[in-house]
Design goal:
Blueprint: H1 2-11, H2 15-20, H3 39-48, H4 51-60, H5 63-82, H6 88-128, H7 149-168, H8 173-195
Helix pairs in contact: 3-5, 6-8, 7-8
Length: 197
């Protein structure tokens, strides 16, 4: 069956041999990967990599790895044709930005969870230790130390600034997540203290 296909290929050269205007040999290295009915596939690869370079790469690879190599070259060549400046790097960069955005959204959600848990813990603590009017002389249970307002505002301002810098420069999202969670925790603790005043 395979031999019959190659006999037909001799009458109809593969896309590579047709573009290069040469006879398609029985052992043509391009024929299994660049069929005659997909001329643009090889045209883009030839334009970006060059036929001789593609031929050399395929000859140096084991047969079982050539299909993956061709798929990779075709993807990169098509991306380069669509975007001559950035090529596939542009697509990768776009996907990386989407990942960073999702990780930042996840960090904000985690910060909100921290804030809600601190508020819930403070509410449970207040419920367990109510202040009775008959025992008004008894000192209330210790409460979390509240943060001075000007210090809290200063901290939040710098935390937000650092978060924006980390996002704009596409730094490791771990730092952005840490800054956001710390900011939420400080807001929650400070808010707990201010409610008791």
């Amino acid at each position: 069956m395979k031999e019959s296909g190659r006999k037909q290929g001799a009458a109809s050269p593969c896309a590579a041999c047709k573009l290069l205007r040469r006879r398609c040999a029985q052992d043509c290295v391009f024929a299994p990967y660049f069929p005659a009915d997909e001329p643009q596939k090889f045209a883009n690869v030839h334009k970006v990599f060059g036929a001789s370079n593609v031929n050399k790469m395929l000859q140096e690879l084991p047969v079982e790895q050539r299909g993956d190599a061709v798929s990779s070259m075709v993807y990169e060549a098509n991306a380069r044709v669509r975007d001559p400046v950035y090529g596939c790097v542009g697509a990768i960069s776009s996907l990386q930005q989407q990942i960073d955005l999702l990780q930042t959204q996840l960090a904000l959600a985690q910060a909100e969870v921290v804030h809600l848990r601190v508020r819930q813990a403070a509410s449970v603590s207040t419920t367990r230790h109510p202040i009775s009017p008959s025992n008004s002389t008894v000192p209330p249970p210790p409460r979390p130390t509240s943060c001075p307002l000007h210090i809290l505002n200063h901290f939040l301002k710098w935390t937000w600034l650092l978060t924006m810098i980390a996002w704009e420069s596409l730094c490791d999202p771990y730092y952005t997540s840490t800054l956001v969670v710390v900011a939420a925790a400080v807001v929650a603790v400070a808010g707990t203290g201010s409610r008791d005043d």
